[in-house]
Amino acid sequence: MIVVKEYEAMLEAYGKAGGNLNALKIRDAGNLVIHKNKVLSANEAAGIKVETEETETGVNIYFLVEEGVKIKHPVHLCFGVLPQEGLQEITLKVEAQAGSEVNVIAHCIFPNAVAVIHKMNADINIGDNAKFSYHETHYHGEFGGVKVIPKAKIRVGKKGVWQSTFVLIEGCVGMLDYDFEIFGEEKSNSELMVKVSGKKEDDISIVEKIHLDGAEARGLAKSRLVLNDNAKAVVRGETYGNAPFARGHVDCLEIVNGEGVIARAIPMVYVNDKQAKVTHEAAIGSIDKKQMQTLMARGLNEEEAVDVIVRGILK
Amino acid sequence: MLEMRNLKLTLNGKPVIDGLNLEVKEGKIHGLLGVNGTGKTTLASLIMGISYPDEGNIIFEGQDITQCTISQRAKMGITLAWQEPARFEGLSIKEYLNLNRDLSLSEIENYLWMVGLPPTEYLNRAIDVSLSGGERKRVELASVMAIKPKVVILDEPDSGIDVVSLPHIMNGITEMSKQGSAVLLITHSEEAVSVADEVSVMCAGKVINTGLPEEMCQWFKSNCQTCNHIGTLEV
Q1: Which residues of A are less than 8 Å from B136 in CB distance?
Q2: Maximum Cα–Cα distance across chain A
């Protein structure tokens, strides 16, 4: 009975966070709903194996996509802590076998957090010619009492594709320590995208590392942050061109929109093969004056113009 | 409809606008012709409220708007299309044309057709660096048309664009006039002002002659293109 209530509460929060409730009802679509250290729902789709193990502080997950299988419906994951306090440690082991394709949509929900810690340690292996998309959206309350610590090591096989987005623009986080590291083999294609809106006293650290280890490997580490109030952020985008014709790019934009904001960007490009090429661009500054004037000349007031620009950057 | 009376602006000790007088009439295209550096873009900024004159007045529909903000002027029906329009990450053309208004999809599509941009290709494209200069200017013109302004200032809409875009832009300008907007067409091109009802020639921060397009183009050719009045007041 308690589990049913927890499940219903999670679904309600999931819906409010923009999650697709109908998607959780599709019989042949995979889903996994976890509240704190309890697995409330786990549905395997054809071609996907999901094993879970509840621990004292979280859940260990093994997620397998079978060789050559292209998963039709997106797989929906929902993680969260609904009370004001709690710890959730997710250990995620992903195996996307050769030639497989899957799109995973994750929602992480902490609407009432005052003192919550959410950790994710992911070990991800994308097989040759496999394609894996992972989109994680966070939903937080306004208090900002969460420590979010997602860490992932991702190996992308030959001609494999990894695309991920991490979005935290609803509510206030508290502390974010994001660290994703990719090792791309020959002709692999890896993209990391982070979009964060920092508010109040948020303390944000973003690390995006891409090692282009195989010939003709491609990598893009992109980040978009809008910092308000007294938020602090540091973004480290690192790309290593270690093989012939590897191509990488680091792209960081931080908008400073508050008197107490501190924004830092540390792009690092490293090349040890004469035929590799890695580029970077980083910009930190207030909202572009010309963009503001253009929108105001269309009849928007200052606040509305800022809103349109910021929403576009974080879209 | 829109009058500039004895406008003056000095920047870094140098007069940029110096006693400028100009009148833009309701529903008419008024060409403003001048070589680079004569203060045309500065005048556009003063009219839109991006900067303010040291002296003089800007009168719109009988009301002194000299100290009004950009947003206030926009709400009155004045708008500006920049020479180098801003680009916006994550904002689609459809969203941009519908900013602050409630247009139907077919209305938005219609505005794109007017500037020669097929909606199926452009509606969902972002207004970012992926658009060429000519495409961006055509989008800007379409967005201005969508507002149905009383007065629109077009700052060099014809400069730096490809030959394919130019006729679409000129067509868009005449279309706006047909819809009832007064247009202040700022340019250094004699071809561009051929669509105007009246043309003023600007030199060294002031209007030095006004007349019919053909006469003013001739006058501009013989008096302005070979002179060195840029940034000086020795007219």
Answers
A1: none
A2: 63
Statement: B2-223 belongs to CATH 2.120.10.10: no
Residues of chain B with Cβ-Cβ distance to A301 below 8 Å are 71
Domain boundaries of chain B, sorted by first residue: 2-223
Interface test with B, best of A222, A253, A296 (most B CBs within 10 A): A296
| Residue in B48, B74, B86 closest to A299 by CB | B74
B88 touches chain A (CB under 8 A): yes
pTM score: 0.81
* Element housing B209 (H / E): strand B206-211
Listed residue (A286, A236, A276) closest to A256, CA to CA: A286
Q: What is the pLDDT along chain B (235 residues), one digit of tens a residue?
A: 999 999 999 998 889 999 999 999 999 999 999 888 889 999 999 999 999 999 999 999 999 999 999 999 999 999 999 988 999 999 999 999 998 888 999 999 999 998 889 999 999 999 988 898 888 988 998 999 999 999 999 999 888 777 777 888 888 889 889 989 999 999 988 888 888 999 999 988 999 999 999 998 888 888 876 676 554 444 3
Q: Is A302 on the interface with B (CB under 8 A)?
A: yes
